Each structure stands twice: as structure tokens, then as C-alpha cells.
Backbone:
């Protein structure tokens, strides 16, 4: 059944397009362009599969927000050791420019990540919401029957709802952030509590409900208490950014045909943009501008 909103983690999709598409060097001055065509092909396929009534893309304006690092020094430290690949970096502004010309809303907020934008939109939007992301942090937003996450795996897209969170991790469906804090998550630079693995973390959540309950009801070392208090501010996506819900659709696509054609032609994305436009028109009932 079609959802009311499809919220896409743009950064997650861009990286998957870059690493999942054959390297092509067809851009100006020998620029690598595989992520550009790959991104629009992936977005078009996703729209055709899910048929959303409205669509918006969240952007990372900070890969590793300073305020989160101040609270947990190791937060996403791998992003320092492994920065954005040189071949990808110049492709990102091109993707943003083409999305703008097509008429797809893409929004970022200074010092915040795409997950925070999506979490704020999820609070503001009405109706059913599907979130497309390879970031498990967004499992914290699942809310039956309103919000689920479309998570890419080798077998395809997995629909993560509350029952699936419970099946995978043995915790209540809305408690993924608490679970990640306790267990730790190397991909996010979260150390977790010493000696606490997945099974113990799940048991603690079932017993105490959440991190607040653990802080209130258990005897903890000072260092563990300090970590949990900091992690409660770092890990859950922010839901109250000062942004509005975008329009999410247009009556006709593209909104700037000349700009789209010029950019798509220059960066080898003519066919992928055409497929995206077709998918947008079908899913939203829009016309050809």
C-alpha cells in the first residue's frame, strides 16, 4: 500500500550509489560521475517500489556534529580516519543541484545530520511514513502502524517495524536507541557499557524499560553513569529542529527543465533522470512540465 510520506536519508543513498555503481569518468575534466547516475537510478526504483504520495530527502550538513563529539569524543570517529572519498566529494553538490531542478525537496541543517532532519519531519508529518536509510539509528523512530524503516540488505529492502526490531534484538520496538547505547556500536563510535553485549543489553531494557530506568534503578559506576547520561543526548535523533515540513510533491516535474537537462547532460545522467521523472509522475499523479 502506498505511504503518505517517503523520507530518504540522502547521504546514505549517495554513499550506496557511489560504492555500488561501476566507476565512470564521463564528467567535465575527467570527473567521476558514477554516484550521480547511480543515485537517481536508486531513487527512481525506490519510488516505483513504494509509490509514496509525498517525498523529501534529508541531507547531512555535518558528518560529525561538534556538539555530539563534545559529549562523546569517539562519536563517529571513523569519519575522521575515512573522510568522503575524493571521487565522491565533487558529485554531491551536482546531485543536490539536479534534485532542485527536478523539484525534489532536499533539506539539511547546519551542525545536524540527516537522521535529525528525518526525525523532525516524522514528528511533523501526518499519515504513514516510510524512512529509507542504511543507518540503524533510525530504527529508534519506528512506530506501529505509522512509521517504518526501509533498510537495505543483501536480500533487498527489509521493512523494519516494531515487531521486526523485537525479533532482531529482543527489545520493545521503540527502544533501539537505548539498546545501541548499552551494547555499543563501532560504526557510530559508541563504546557501550563494559562487559555488556547484545543479550545483556536487551535484558537490561526489558527489566528497566529504558536508559532513564537503568539510571534510576541500578547501581552504576560513575564513569558508566556519565556515559549513559551523555549518550542519551547524543544517540537518539533530534526531533525538534527549527524546520518546516516541505511540500513533498509538485504538480508537474521538472520544475526547471533547462537546468535539469543541462546538468544531466553534462554529468551523464540523462537516462537516470528520465526514469526518475517518470516514477515521480506516476507516484504523485503529477504532469510533465
Residues:
Amino acid at each position: 500500500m502506498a505511504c503518505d510520506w517517503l523520507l530518504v536519508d540522502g547521504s546514505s543513498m549517495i554513499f550506496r550509489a557511489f560504492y555500488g555503481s561501476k566507476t565512470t569518468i564521463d564528467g567535465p575534466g575527467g570527473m567521476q560521475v558514477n554516484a550521480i547516475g547511480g543515485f537517481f537510478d536508486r531513487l527512481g526504483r525506490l519510488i516505483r517500489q513504494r509509490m509514496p504520495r509525498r517525498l523529501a530527502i534529508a541531507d547531512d550538513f555535518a558528518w560529525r556534529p561538534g556538539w555530539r563529539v563534545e559529549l562523546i569524543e569517539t562519536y563517529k570517529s571513523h569519519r575522521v580516519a575515512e573522510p568522503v572519498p575524493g571521487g565522491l566529494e565533487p558529485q554531491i553538490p551536482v546531485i543536490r543541484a539536479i534534485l532542485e531542478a527536478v523539484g525534489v525537496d532536499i533539506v539539511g541543517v547546519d551542525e545536524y545530520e540527516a537522521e535529525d532532519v528525518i526525525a523532525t519531519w516524522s514528528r511533523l508529518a501526518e499519515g504513514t511514513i516510510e524512512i529509507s536509510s542504511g543507518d540503524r539509528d533510525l530504527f529508534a523512530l519506528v512506530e506501529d502502524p505509522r512509521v517504518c524503516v526501509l533498510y537495505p540488505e543483501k536480500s533487498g529492502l527489509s521493512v523494519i517495524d516494531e515487531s521486526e526490531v523485537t525479533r532482531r534484538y529482543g527489545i520493545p520496538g521503540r527502544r533501539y536507541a537505548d539498546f545501541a547505547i548499552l551494547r555499543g556500536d563501532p560504526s557510530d563510535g559508541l563504546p557501550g557499557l563494559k562487559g555488556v553485549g547484545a543479550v545483556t543489553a536487551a535484558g537490561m531494557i526489558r527489566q528497566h524499560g529504558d536508559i532513564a530506568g537503568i539510571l534510576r534503578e541500578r547501581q552504576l559506576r560513575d564513569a558508566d553513569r556519565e556515559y549513559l547520561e551523555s549518550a542519551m543526548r547524543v544517540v537518539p535523533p533530534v526531533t525538534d529542529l527549527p524546520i518546516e515540513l516541505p511540500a513533498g510533491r509538485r504538480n508537474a516535474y521538472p520544475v526547471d527543465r533547462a537546468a535539469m537537462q543541462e546538468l544531466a547532460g553534462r554529468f551523464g545522467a540523462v537516462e537516470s533522470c528520465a526514469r526518475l521523472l517518470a516514477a515521480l509522475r506516476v507516484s504523485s499523479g503529477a504532469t510533465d512540465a
Observations:
- The chain is about 45% helix and 10% strand.
- The beta strands are 5-9, 54-58, 105-107, 129-132, 147-153, 156-160, 252-253, 287-288.
